[in-house]
Amino acid sequence: SVVIQECYVQNTAREYAKLYAAEAEPLEGFGEVPEIIPIFLIHRPANNIPYATVEEELVGEFVKYSVKDGKEVNFLRRDSEAGQKCCTFQHWVYEKTNGNLLVTDLQGVGMKLTDVGIATLAKGYKGFKGNCSFSFIEQFRALHQCNEYCEMLGLKSLRTTHQKQRKATSTKSKNLPNSSTLKKMVPKKAREHRDFISSEH
């Protein structure tokens, strides 16, 4: 059921958040770590809707710190401490799961988060079925900008790995055997250049 899956998503994300806190809290200057509040499943056999969820009510300004898609630009994500720490949490989970899982929809009041989502690279990863949007992960990789909290945790920049791959391919093209005639080389270079441009956009 949707409700059971919702509980599974939030409580899985909560377990990751606890591990993140255990690693981040002892670091000097890190400070408070965002927490995903627990969500409980209750069974009401006599009711028309036999399952429901219960969670703590969050009082205060409800803010979205991370989004599923790039259409929504949220400055609080960049400018607030909670927002930056949420972005670092996403990066941390992404690195811990080797890019297979991303916690999305980080939202809540202050450092208390709820109603989060999970995107996985492959269907069925860790038992997640419906929410397997590869595009969220692709987008996160493209848009994430590391902040001081990423640095404190020693997370690898997602940008440098991408640039290293590009450098490797560009040096390869220079070391082509000299026996190739110039005529043969021109179209090949032009083609590589075109691919390079299209992959950039």
From TrEMBL:
<comment type="similarity">
    <text>Belongs to the protein kinase superfamily. Alpha-type protein kinase family. ALPK subfamily.</text>
</comment>
<keyword id="KW-0393">Immunoglobulin domain</keyword>
<keyword id="KW-1015">Disulfide bond</keyword>
<feature type="compositionally biased region" description="Basic and acidic residues">
    <location>
        <begin position="192"/>
        <end position="201"/>
    </location>
</feature>
<keyword id="KW-1003">Cell membrane</keyword>
<dbReference type="GO" id="GO:0005524">
    <property type="term" value="F:ATP binding"/>
</dbReference>
<dbReference type="InterPro" id="IPR011009">
    <property type="entry name" value="Kinase-like_dom_sf"/>
</dbReference>
<feature type="compositionally biased region" description="Polar residues">
    <location>
        <begin position="170"/>
        <end position="182"/>
    </location>
</feature>
<keyword id="KW-0418">Kinase</keyword>
<keyword id="KW-0472">Membrane</keyword>
<dbReference type="Pfam" id="PF02816">
    <property type="entry name" value="Alpha_kinase"/>
</dbReference>
<keyword id="KW-0677">Repeat</keyword>
<keyword id="KW-0808">Transferase</keyword>
<keyword id="KW-0723">Serine/threonine-protein kinase</keyword>
<protein>
    <recommendedName>
        <fullName>Alpha-protein kinase 2</fullName>
        <ecNumber>2.7.11.1</ecNumber>
    </recommendedName>
</protein>
<dbReference type="GO" id="GO:0016323">
    <property type="term" value="C:basolateral plasma membrane"/>
</dbReference>
<feature type="domain" description="Alpha-type protein kinase">
    <location>
        <begin position="1"/>
        <end position="158"/>
    </location>
</feature>
<dbReference type="GO" id="GO:0004674">
    <property type="term" value="F:protein serine/threonine kinase activity"/>
</dbReference>
<feature type="region of interest" description="Disordered">
    <location>
        <begin position="161"/>
        <end position="201"/>
    </location>
</feature>
<dbReference type="InterPro" id="IPR004166">
    <property type="entry name" value="a-kinase_dom"/>
</dbReference>
<comment type="function">
    <text>Protein kinase that recognizes phosphorylation sites in which the surrounding peptides have an alpha-helical conformation. Regulates cardiac development and cardiomyocyte differentiation by negatively regulating Wnt/beta-catenin signaling.</text>
</comment>
